[in-house]
Design brief:
Largest interface: A-B, 21 and 25 residues
Structural class of chain A: alpha+beta
Order of helices and strands of chain B: HHHEEHHHHHHHHHHH
Number of helices of chain A: 17
Largest sheet of chain B: 2 strands, antiparallel
Strand content of chain B: under 5%
CATH superfamily of one domain in chain B: Cytochrome c-like domain
Shape of chain B: elongated
Distance between the termini of chain A: 91 Å
Number of domains of chain A: 3
Strand content of chain A: 15-25%
Number of helices of chain B: 14
Oligomer: heterodimer
CATH class of one domain in chain B: Mainly Alpha
Largest sheet of chain A: 5 strands, antiparallel
Strand order of the largest sheet of chain B: 1-2
Number of strands of chain B: 2
Chain lengths: 484, 340
């Protein structure tokens, strides 16, 4: 008995599914308009942001967003990040993850349906496809028809347009890594560096393949988010939902009229399959929440349009919660709650992390002092019996103008500090000029008079004083002595 | 035949033997007459089964033939290799053929075949080194043209001189002076401010250039008599001089007669070491008043120095290293901290 059941499953269920091409039909409505608006906004930002200028003075690039790999700097409007501050990136990643969780707790996979680059570029590619080959039926017909000159022309046109968009996508990407106008000119005159061409090539290929061919399969098979999302969601999250209580039993208008004539209940769903035709992932939302659903709401637009035409109330498909589905079934009141423990926790995490990052960003020093003690020798005996230690000192000037710092040492009575290459009178503290937005490495010698009471290791503090502002930075280290 | 020849001979012949052996196996395996034999051999695993591999079993659910191997009721399906895998394999074969032609590959007498591209790892290293040298050329040119003091006052050039001087020091000087230049007994510590021949940039540069007691015409050289070996002083006198010398830097020697030692010092040592014992960097005579000793300040060491003299040596680097490298070395040694 058990064996036959297993066998039956084996025969009926294939582990491998052939790809069935999805031909989404065009649709209009508030969700479609929202998606167009988000598409225009996100793509506009992506393509145009590299050209936004931001004046930082003569010693820094004037591009608002720039990842300057050769000089190891990242510029974002008024923020400049050095490589050792890469933890801000960690903070951003935490923020992005928790923001995704929060969106999910509020309204399921709205990230997937509206803002995900895969969705946005697929939408754009579909727009081109629709524009060249026509809407759903015409595209299906075209694909089924034998090859002809007009078919070849249409296909060629579509792919050329796709590749152009894909090239533009890769082209915009590299603009974030170099001065955009210069690089555009270099690309136009074929003088751009090979790295730029390589990256444009890679991104052209991935955009073309992912948005042109892989499309919903990326969401269904490649992306980990749907799987994680399914584990994170709860019964209070809004999802695109078919009102099964209102819709069933489904049937054509004729059937419904016949049923009603017999005094039997008839559902609102007229089984027109419009929700399936417009779905970018090709599923039937009436089967309930599915892994493939990216919750873009296009089926809502399609269904509402039809409902208006047949004079039935809209909202047969809409954003609703699992809780409400169960409540309706049980005849209990429905509700939508945005403020719940999990949304509060997610929002709190976002506030705390962004608060910490902002505080850190606003209070960070704009100069730095690193000290490294010589390893060999640890100390040097001098002819007058005094002891000398050598250090490598690194001064970081994050300001965009040159600045002068004076170096001092504290915690060592009678000690004197000397910088190789900078002649300073013995009584004065050495002053070091550090260029704009650079690091200067110095070899620093510290002399201490003979002192039998001094131990093998004396804690000392190096100080760097910004001459202009009198701000002081301190770094602790040790002064080594023979100890005899 | 020396070891190297034997190695290259063995290498070539061994590889040729391998290639020939492989070729023979390949020809044998593909020879039409042998086909039947190999087909039978391929069936041996199947013949291990109970039915002797006569009945090929078809799996009911998938319709694929099985290999007949069974583990706890699980049977292995005899699926062909995936196409993508097979094609990747063919591509790697083609790739390797192209590689054989383009790059050094086949063992041959006197080294492997050169390949059409003429590529060699040594040549690549040479090119990389050449491009690095080209990158550094401006710095080296600057180093050879400007004076030592000027190098010190140019931050960028100073950094280059210290880095390249440090590398040259590690290659050439560290065996005696140590990687941190702290020296050892008989090899001066270059970090401290006690210099035999002077610690200014020019003096250090000169010392590196001509060496100490080297074969260079202008070598730094001096002659401290071996007072004991040459019987200039007897053992008691040496003890007294040693005691007096040690007293100059505050060390006590109860067994020595310091006033006798002082007299002998005035007779024998003053000419080079000076009345106050401060030495003379012109002559390379050490300062005896500080507590830094090249060969040690213990009484037996001082007596040994007086008895047999010491005469350390350092090679002249003029002609062995390029002039700008010697300049960088001088700057590096000077910036260790002891330079004056």
């Amino acid at each position: 008995m058990a064996e036959t059941a297993t066998q039956a499953r084996y025969e009926n269920e294939q582990l491998y599914a052939d790809h069935k091409k999805v031909y989404p039909q065009s649709v209009s409505g508030p969700f479609r308009r929202l998606k167009w608006a988000i598409l225009a906004l996100t793509l506009g930002a992506y393509y145009l942001l590299p050209f936004v200028r931001w004046n930082r003075g003569p010693n820094a690039p004037d591009q608002a967003i720039l990842v300057d790999l050769p000089n190891q700097r990242f510029y974002f409007f008024f923020i400049e990040i050095w490589p050792q501050e890469v933890y801000y990136l960690t903070g951003l990643l935490i923020l992005a993850a928790v923001a995704l969780f929060l969106m999910n707790a509020l309204a399921g996979r709205i990230w997937c349906g509206y803002t995900c680059p895969q969705t946005v570029w697929t939408d754009l590619f579909l727009l081109v496809e629709r524009w060249v080959e026509g809407d759903r039926r015409e595209r299906i017909k075209l694909d089924e028809s034998p090859w002809s000159i007009s078919k070849a022309r249409k296909k060629a046109m579509k792919h050329v347009a796709w590749i152009a968009i894909a090239w533009w996508t890769g082209g915009a990407w590299v603009l974030y890594f170099a001065d955009a106008p210069t690089l555009v000119w270099q690309l136009a005159t074929f003088q751009a560096p090979l790295t730029a061409w390589t990256w444009i090539g890679i991104l052209t290929l991935t955009t073309y393949l992912l948005a042109g061919f892989a499309r919903e399969q990326v969401c269904t098979y490649m992306c980990p988010w749907p799987r994680i999302q399914a584990a994170l969601t709860d019964e209070e999250a809004l999802n695109v939902t078919y009102r099964i209580d209102r819709g069933e039993p489904r049937g054509s208008l004729k059937k419904a009229a016949a049923l009603e004539a017999k005094g039997k209940p008839a559902g609102d769903c007229i089984d027109c399959y419009q929700c399936v035709a417009v779905c970018p992932t090709g599923i039937d939302i009436r089967a309930g929440i599915q892994l493939e659903c990216i919750q873009c709401g296009l089926c809502i637009d399609a269904c509402d349009t039809v409902m208006r035409k047949v004079d039935r109330p809209t909202g047969l498909i809409g954003y609703d919660t699992d809780f409400n589905i169960a409540a309706r079934e049980a005849g209990k009141p429905t509700h939508v709650r945005f403020i719940r423990p999990r949304t509060i926790v997610y929002a709190a995490i976002i506030l705390i992390v962004s608060g910490l990052m902002l505080t850190q960003l606003l209070t960070r020093d704009d100069f730095g002092l690193n000290v490294l003690h010589d390893r060999n020798p640890q100390f040097v005996r001098l002819s007058d019996g005094g002891i000398r230690n050598g250090y490598t000192v690194r001064l970081l000037n994050k300001a965009l103008e040159p600045r002068i710092f004076t170096l001092n040492i504290e915690g060592l009575p009678g000690a004197r500090l000397e910088v190789i290459g900078i002649d300073t009178p013995k009584s004065a503290s050495p002053s070091v000029e550090v260029g704009p937005d650079t690091t200067r490495e110095l070899r620093v010698l510290v002399f201490a008079p003979p002192d039998p009471a001094r131990g093998v290791s004396t804690p000392v503090t190096f100080t760097a004083t910004n001459l202009a502002s009198d701000d002081v930075l301190r770094t602790s280290d040790f002064f080594k002595s023979p100890g005899d | 035949m020396n070891a190297e020849d034997a190695m290259s001979f063995a290498g070539t012949w061994w590889l040729l033997l391998l290639v020939a052996g492989f070729a023979i196996v390949l020809v044998y395996a593909l020879w039409p007459k042998n086909k039947k034999k190999f087909d039978e051999a391929a069936r041996i695993p199947l013949e291990d089964d109970d039915d002797g591999g006569q009945n090929i079993e078809i799996d009911e659910l998938s319709g694929t033939e099985t290999t007949g191997h069974e583990w706890d009721g699980l049977k292995e399906l005899n699926n062909p290799l995936p196409k993508w895998w097979l094609w990747t394999f063919y591509v790697t074969v083609i790739w390797s053929l192209a590689y054989f032609v383009l790059y050094p590959a086949w063992p041959w007498f006197g080294g492997a075949t050169k390949g059409l591209l003429g590529w060699s790892s040594r040549q690549e290293v040479t090119q990389e080194l050449a491009s690095l040298r080209a990158e550094q050329k401006t710095y080296w040119d600057n180093l050879s043209q400007i004076g030592l003091e000027e190098i010190r006052s140019d931050p960028e050039l100073l950094q280059f001189a210290m880095a390249s001087g440090g590398a040259a020091f590690g290659d050439n000087c560290a065996p005696c002076h140590g990687t941190g230049a702290i020296g050892a007994k008989g090899y001066p510590n270059l970090n401290d401010d006690d210099w035999l021949w002077g610690g200014s940039l020019d003096e250090i540069h000169q010392s590196i250039l001509v060496g100490i007691r080297s074969v260079h015409d202008d070598t730094r050289d001096n002659e401290m008599p071996a007072f004991g070996r040459d019987e200039i002083l007897d053992q008691t006198q040496i003890l007294n001089v040693a005691g007096y010398t040690r007293s100059l830097s505050g060390l006590e020697t109860p067994s020595a007669d310091l006033s006798a030692g002082k007299e002998l010092y005035a007779e024998q040592c003053v000419a080079c070491h000076g009345e106050d014992g401060k030495g003379n960097t012109e002559l390379g005579s050490p300062d005896l008043t500080n507590n830094l000793w090249l060969y040690g300040g213990d009484l037996p060491e001082v007596i040994e120095t007086l008895t047999n003299s010491r005469k350390g040596v350092m090679p002249a680097w003029d002609g062995r290293l390029d002039p700008p490298v010697i300049k960088a070395l001088a700057v590096y040694v000077h910036s260790l901290g002891g330079g004056v």
